[in-house]
Amino acid sequence: MGGGDVFFVLSLIALIIIVLDGKRRIKKRVSAAQPSSWHLQQSQSAPSEEVPNLPSQPQNPAKVDLPTSPSTETTQCLPASGGSLIGSTLRIDGDVSAHEALVISGAVVGNVTAWEHSVMVNEAGSVSPRIEARTVCVAGSVTGQLVATDQAIVLSSARVSGSIEAKRLKCESGAWLQSTVT
User: Pick from 52, 105, 111, 43: which is nearest to 79 by CA?
Assistant: First the structure.
């Protein structure tokens, strides 16, 4: 093997490493931009699969007070695919009307409406004064009116103050509620 061949092989190896590292960095950026559980399916199963089958419930009672990862907690709340994300650095002063699933990690001061879709308020997210959707899942803060035409899910990290209107309500132990429920 001549000097040029060795240089060519080393250059080819360096190029492969650069491409693989670039793909790794892109995946890392994408996962940082949206919750890792974004692509997990929303639990919209039959009523026979109620609270005992949810993946966010601890199996060991001694670990109840330990914090769980957001991806585990929000599994039952997130859409199967698609949707929009209001990032943690974004604050919206005004109404939001979504025609797809919506995940809120930032702050919305205004009405949030997604009639036929789900809305997830992540731990860092907050909404006031009204949120209205088919399914509303709260891990963050909602102040005002929460209206779910199908189901409202209040996770253990949630703070809800105001009123909750929903056909079905699931509330995890540890959630902070100061609400009237209809």
Answer: 43
